User: What shape does this take?
Amino acid sequence: MLLFPAAALVFLCLLVPLFYVLVLSLNHAVTGDVALHAALTPENYVRLFSRWFYSRILVRTVWLSVLTTVLCAVFGTVLSLSLWRTAGRKRAYLILIVASPLLVSIVTRTYGWMVVLGDTGLVNAVLMHLHVISSPLHMMYTQGAVVVGLVHVFLPMMVLSVLAALDKIDPAIPEAAMSLGAGRFATFWKVIFPLAIPGLSAGITIVFSLSMSSYVTPALMGGSNAGMLTTLIYQQFVVTYNWHFGSALVMVLLATSLLVLVLLLAESSRRTRAWLTRK
Amino acid sequence: MANVTLENISRRYGATTAVEDVSLTLESGQFLTLLGPSGCGKSTTLRMIAGLLAPTTGRILLDGKDVTALGPAKRNIGMVFQSLALFPHMTAAENVAFGLNMRKVSEKERNARVKKILDVVQLGHLADRYPSQLSGGQQQRVAIARAMVIQPSILILDEPFAALDRKLREAMQVELRQITKSLGITSLFVTHDQEEALMMSDYIAVMGHSRVQQFGTPSDIYQRPANRFVADFVGMSNVLDGHIVAANKDDAFATVEALGIQFKTLHAEGRRAGAKVSVALRPEGVTVESVPVKDAAQGKVRSMTYHGHMSSYAIELDNGQLVHAREINPETQMERPRRFEVGAPVWVNWQADAVRVLER
Amino acid sequence: MNSIDMPTGWGDRIFTALMRSLVYVLYAFLLAPLICVVIVSFNAEAVQTFPPQHWSFHWYAVAMETHSFTHGLLVSAVLALVATLIAAPAGVAAALALNRSNWKGKAWVEAIFLAPLVVPGLVAGIAILVATAALNVRDAPVRLLIGHIVIVLPYVIRTTLASLARLDPQIAEAALTLGAGRFTAFRLITLPLIKQGLTAGMLFGFILSFDDVSVSLFLSDARTVTLPLAIMSYLQYSFDPSVAAISSLLIGVTLIFIIVLERRMGVKKLFTG
Assistant: This one.
C-alpha cells in the first residue's frame, strides 16, 4: 500500500515516541533511568502544579503566549486586509516580504532583534541621536523583549492564514455592503470579519501553539526574568537529567496546545457551521 | 424615483481608455439597458453611475444633483451584482435587512419591510435559509430584494442573469420587469445579450469600443441600426458593399445597387447618388431560390445547419462573398422539407424593406 | 479586490490614513531585524554599534574560518538534503493514496499525517530523544535524521496533495487506457504534472529543516551540531559580527532560492502548493 512508508514514519518516529513520553511522565522519577515501568504515579504532575516556582513559569508562559497571539491577531488582520486589497505584482512582492522571516532561521531573527533592541543597537542609537534619551534603554532580557521577538516570528503565519481566508471572499461582497450604505468600518466588522474567522482561528491556534513551545527567542532574549516552560524543559533534559519531570512538562505543553486547538476549532465551527460549505 | 444624467463621462487607466465621452439621460421610472460585447465599457460605466468608480472626466447627476464626488452609500442606489454578492454568513432575511440596518431603520419597520419584499419575490418561506441553501434562482431573488427594500432612487443590475439557465433566465426577466414597472423604479441594466435587452428595456444604449454607438428604443435599435457595429450586434450579419445609383430630394426612395442587384429603399435618407454605402441585411431577410430568378446573385451552398424550426445557410456567391441566410422550415414541408444541400447552386435575393443602408 | 476609490467622509479618511501608516510600520517591523543583521555584518569593529563606523568584509572571513560554523553548515545541509530525499517519495506515495481514496475516516487519516505540524517541534524532538534513548540508539546523526524527516514529511504531503487535488483524474486514466502500466502512468504523466507542488513542498521542507532549532535542540550532541544550533551556542558567549556575517549569507542564499522559485512558480503556489 502506498500509504505504508509515510504511515510507518509518522507512527514510529512520532506517535510511538510521544506515547513513550506520556508513560515516562507517569513513572517515578529516577535520574538517568529511561526505561518504562508499569507502576504509574502522578507525582511529576503534582510537583509541577503544587510548587509555585514551577507553576509560575507555566502561568507566565501562557500569559506571554496569549499576549503574543493577541498582538499577532490584531496586527496580522490589519496587514492581511491591506494585502487583500492590493493586486498584481506588487501584492506578490509584499507577500514575499511578509513571508521572508519564515524562511530565515529563528536564531537569525532573534539575533536581529538583539541587534535592534540592544544597548548599542538600532533603537537606542536612534533615540540617543535624536536626544530623546541620554542613556540607553535596557530593553533586552525582559518579558517585553520576548513578546516583541515572538510577535515578529509569528506575525507572518497569522498574515498568511488570514489572507487565505480573505481570498475566498467574493470581491463584490464589500462593494455590495458599501452600496447598501455601510461605511468602511461597518463593512469590515459586519461583513468581512465574520467571513475571515476560519482563517483567523487557524492562525490563532498556530501562533499560540508555537509561542508556547518556542525555545530560542525566550532563551536568547528573555534572561532570568522571563523563564518560560521551554527553558525549564531544556534544563530537565540537558542539565539535571530528570527526564520524568521533563516529560510531564512536555505533556502539559502538548496538552495546552491541543486544548486551545480543540476549543478554537469548536468555537469557529459553531459560528460558521450554518453557512460555510465544504467542497 | 430619480432621473440620471451622464455628461461627457470618461474613464481612463493610464494609456487605456475604458469609457470615452459618454453622455446619456435616463428619465425617472424608465428602464435603460447598456448593451454591448465584453470589454465595450458598459460595466465600467455602470460602476461609475453606482459610485464604485470615479470618472476621469465628466459629471454624473442624480435628479439634477451632482453626485460625481459621492460614494455609493450616499447616492441611495440599489445594486444587484453579477456574482450576486450575497453575504454567505447571513440568512436571506438578514441579507435583505442589511441596507435597512445601515440606515438605522427601527426594528419593527425593518421586519415589516423585509417580510413584505420577500413576499413580493415569493421567498417568504425561505427567509431563514442561508444563501448556500438556496437555488440559483432563489439567490437571485434575494439579491434583487436586498437592493429594492431600501427604496433606492435607481436600481442598478450588472448582468444579473448571466449565470442562469435559459428557462430560469426568461422567467426572471419577466418577473423583474413586472416588479420594476409596478413600483415605477428607475432601472439601469447591463447585458451583452441582445434579446434580453430588446425584451426588457424602454431604452437601449448600445456600447462598443468605449463609446455609445446608438441610443434609442428597442425598435429603433433593432430596425434602424445607426452603424455597422450596431447592425452587426443586433443580428444584421450580412454587410454588403453597395452604392447609390440615384437619389433625389423629392423622392423618399433611393435606388441602391449591391451585388449587381438594384432595389429601391426608403432607408437611405440624405445620401447622394454615387455615394458608397454598406447594405446591412439580416439572414432572415435573405431569400434563397433553387432556380434562377431575375435580379438575384448566384452562388453555392457552403454549409447548412438545422435548428429545428429553421435552417441556416452559408452561401458562397460567385464573386467570393459569403452571405448568411436563414429560413423557417414550414410545417407543411416537414415531410419533404425544402432544404438546400451543400454544394447546390442557389440564387439569392432580398426584400427592399429588409435592408438597412449605412455609411461605408 | 477592487479598492473602492471613491472619497468618503472625514471619519473614514482618518481611519484609512491611520491604517496605512500602521501597515508601513508593520512592514518596517518585519524587515528591521533582518536588515540590521546584514548591516551589522559589515561592521569593522567587534561591537555591534549602530550605525557601523567602519565597513569591512572582515567578519565574513572570520565566519568562514570558524570551525563550528563550517561544520554546522555541512551538517545542516547534508541533513536537510537526506531528510528531504527520504521524505519525498514517502510523502508522494501517501499523497497519492490519500487523493485517490474516499473512505469514511479520510479526514482523520489526513490529520494524522499532518500531525507533525500540530505537535510543537520541541515536543517532537524530546519524544524522539526519549524513544531512541530507550532503544539504546545514542547516535546523534541518526536521531537528527529521524527528527528532520518528521519535519519535512508533512510539508511534502500537504503541497503534493493540493497539487493532486487540482489534477483531473481522467488524465492518468487516459494513460492507462492507452496501455501504460500504473507506475509508468505515474512516472510519465502524473509526476510531471505535480512537479510544481512537489518541488514547493520539498523546498519548504528543506528550508525548514535547515533552519530548524526546536527539534534539533535535543537531538544533537557535542560532535554533531547543526548550523542554527552552532550559531546559538556561539551567541551565548560571544557577540561579535561573525554571527551577523554567517546569518547574512544564509539570508542571501535563501532569498536567491525563493526568488528563483517565485519566478518559475508564483508566490501563491510556494506557500500553498
